[in-house]
């Protein structure tokens, strides 16, 4: 049991709530994947006899019984200033979640739930890492919206929760910040997140063939024979690879559209609410008071098309990479305007990093390929093999591409402070710029590798009690590593700087 302090006791006349009985149609189906392998094994061992079918039917019946028992022994209830969930069978388990600790409520409707008019409600307190604190899997859509509204209102105003008999206030006021037009879903393949979907499908099919081949009538020997035959016909492999590459933007765009269909960002009663999804409609609420900044992410193709994605940096938010998304791919100007309207502006430029940071990026982008080219050249001189020629040409091309890539990576570096918010930016193939409120900074950390020490640069990490936990300014000079923290948090650095400026020598370690 958690959160025992401030217990107000049960409210007379209140009846604990249960999940919808319709969930009994979903739970056995959801358990089938874990039962499928044992059931198939039982039937194969029994030679598909009447007895084996009887054992398989008994397994299915047992899964139904387990689902009924789980449904009958689980209840939830809002008691005073907290949400209480109970599960009682042989032993009794009670979990209490204080309203003021609730950071967000996530409502989703997977396909089977949507068919039955049900929803899944996940309650996040930020105390369980990437896992939700409580999960109500199988309540009606009306109950999900009612519960979400009550939990978020009382979390925002916990003093109202101490009056259990008070009439429910009117529904929260809602303001739409951004509706993503469906035509912008065409930007989806630019993000690259879904482009490998065709290869994932093929990889899954190959794994399924090796794992279930015998049950499907395809032995592993047959699968190996097919693989060897394809290896002996490389043109077919090349054709399959070309087809998969051509399918990448279409399949990736389709998956992107399914996940981000009708994306809408709203402001509702002190919360930022993001809703999206075609098959599984999902609604995520982020408490505005706990938003500490935002992160703008652009891939190389996205930068070329001038589009970007945006995430909120929120304290105590589990699974922030998924739940913190503010916008999918939209025009960059729109993303900046929406984050400014929803969170706040950053009103300063980026400060460049020292020239040695440029040299380091050029070195890492060029020299490895030049080494490969040297090895390939040796191979050409010794064997005159066509393979070595191909490798030599490819390595020289990649070394040439490394020049603009290294320069772009250096141009992407930067950090800054406008008196209210600080920002850091880095990356080229995936450029990310984080803007964080000064009050969110909880500490500073300096990191220096052996190569950085020789180059006299450091990585300065601003510790933030939100988002990823820390945001890095990479390859700053030694002066910048001191001056930037002193500018953002002067009260922390003053004792150290005064000590260094004094005439007294520092004690040796």
Short description:
The protein has 509 residues and is of the alpha+beta class. The protein has 15 helices and 19 strands. Among the domains are: 21-102 and 138-167, no CATH class; 182-260; 355-412.
Please give a handful of descriptors for the protein shown.
disordered N terminus; 19 strands; alpha+beta; single chain; seven-stranded antiparallel beta sheet; 44% helix; 509 residues; 15 helices; globular
| Biggest sheet details | 7 strands, antiparallel
Helix-strand makeup class: alpha+beta
- The CA-CA distance between the termini, in Å, is 47 Å
Shape: globular
In round numbers, the mean pLDDT is: 80
Query: Regions with pLDDT < 50 over 5+ consecutive residues?
Result: 1-13, 158-169
- Could you give the order of strands across the largest sheet? 6-5-4-10-9-8-7
How large, in whole angstroms, is the Cα Rg?
Answer: 29 Å
Number of strand segments: 19
Strand content: 25-35%
Number of helices: 15
Helix content range: 40-55%
Explained architecture:
Helix content is 44%, strand content 25%. A seven-stranded antiparallel sheet has the order 6-5-4-10-9-8-7, with helices on both faces. The chain has a six-stranded antiparallel sheet with strand order 13-12-11-16-15-14. The model is unreliable at 1-13 and 158-169 (pLDDT under 50). The chain has helices spanning 27-45, 50-72, 111-115, 141-156, 197-212, 220-231, 234-260, 300-305, 320-323, 332-342, 355-383, 386-412, 450-455, 478-488, 490-501; strands spanning 74-79, 82-88, 92-98, 104-109, 118-124, 134-140, 174-179, 264-268, 271-276, 281-287, 291-299, 307-314, 325-331, 414-417, 421-426, 430-437, 441-447, 457-464, 470-477. Among the domains are: 21-102 and 138-167, no CATH class; 182-260; 355-412. With 509 residues, the chain is of the alpha+beta class. Pfam families: bPH_2.
């Amino acid at each position: 049991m958690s959160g025992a302090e401030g217990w107000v006791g049960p409210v007379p006349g209140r009846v604990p709530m249960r999940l919808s009985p319709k969930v009994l149609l979903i739970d056995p189906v959801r358990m089938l994947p874990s039962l499928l392998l044992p059931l198939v094994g039982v039937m194969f061992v029994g030679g598909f006899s009447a007895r084996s079918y009887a054992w398989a039917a008994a397994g299915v019946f047992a899964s139904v019984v387990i689902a009924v028992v789980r449904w009958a022994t689980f209840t939830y209830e809002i008691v005073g200033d907290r949400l209480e969930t109970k599960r009682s069978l042989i032993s009794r388990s009670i979990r209490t979640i204080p309203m003021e600790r609730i950071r967000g409520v996530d409502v989703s409707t997977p396909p089977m739930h949507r068919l039955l008019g049900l929803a899944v409600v996940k309650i996040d307190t930020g105390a369980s890492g990437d896992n939700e604190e409580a999960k109500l899997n199988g309540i009606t859509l009306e109950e999900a919206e009612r519960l979400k509204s009550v939990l978020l209102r009382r979390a925002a105003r916990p003093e109202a929760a101490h009056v259990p008999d008070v009439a429910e206030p009117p529904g929260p006021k809602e303001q739409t910040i951004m509706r993503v037009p469906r035509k912008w879903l065409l930007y989806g393949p630019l993000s690259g997140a879904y482009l490998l979907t065709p290869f994932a499908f093929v990889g899954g099919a190959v794994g399924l063939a090796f794992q279930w081949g015998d049950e499907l009538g395809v032995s592993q020997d047959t699968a190996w024979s097919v693989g060897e035959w394809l290896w002996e016909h490389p043109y077919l492999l090349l054709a399959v690879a070309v087809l998969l590459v051509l399918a990448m933007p279409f399949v990736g765009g389709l998956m992107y559209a399914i996940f981000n269909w009708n994306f809408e960002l709203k402001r509702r009663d002190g919360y930022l609410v993001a809703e999206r999804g075609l098959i599984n409609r999902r609604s995520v609420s982020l408490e505005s008071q706990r938003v500490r900044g935002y992160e703008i992410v652009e891939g190389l193709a996205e930068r070329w098309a001038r589009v970007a994605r945006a995430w909120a940096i929120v304290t105590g938010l589990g699974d922030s990479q998924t739940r913190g998304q503010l916008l999918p791919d939209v025009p960059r100007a729109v993303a900046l305007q929406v984050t400014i309207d929803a969170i706040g502006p950053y009103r300063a430029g980026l400060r460049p990093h020292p020239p040695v940071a440029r040299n380091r990026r050029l070195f890492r982008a060029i020299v490895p390929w030049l080494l490969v080219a040297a090895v390939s050249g040796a191979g050409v001189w010794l064997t005159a093999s066509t393979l070595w020629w191909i490798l030599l040409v490819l390595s020289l091309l990649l070394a040439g591409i490394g020049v603009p890539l290294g320069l772009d990576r250096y141009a992407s570096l930067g950090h800054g402070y406008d008196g209210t918010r600080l920002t850091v930016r880095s990356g080229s193939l995936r450029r990310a710029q984080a803007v964080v409120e000064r009050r969110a900074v909880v500490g500073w950390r300096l990191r220096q590798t052996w190569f950085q020490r020789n180059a006299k640069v450091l990585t300065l990490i601003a510790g933030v009690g939100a988002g990823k936990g820390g945001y890095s300014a990479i390859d700053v000079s030694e002066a910048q590593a001191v001056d930037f923290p002193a500018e953002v948090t002067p009260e922390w650095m003053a004792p150290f700087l005064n000590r260094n400026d004094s005439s007294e020598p520092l004690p040796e370690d």
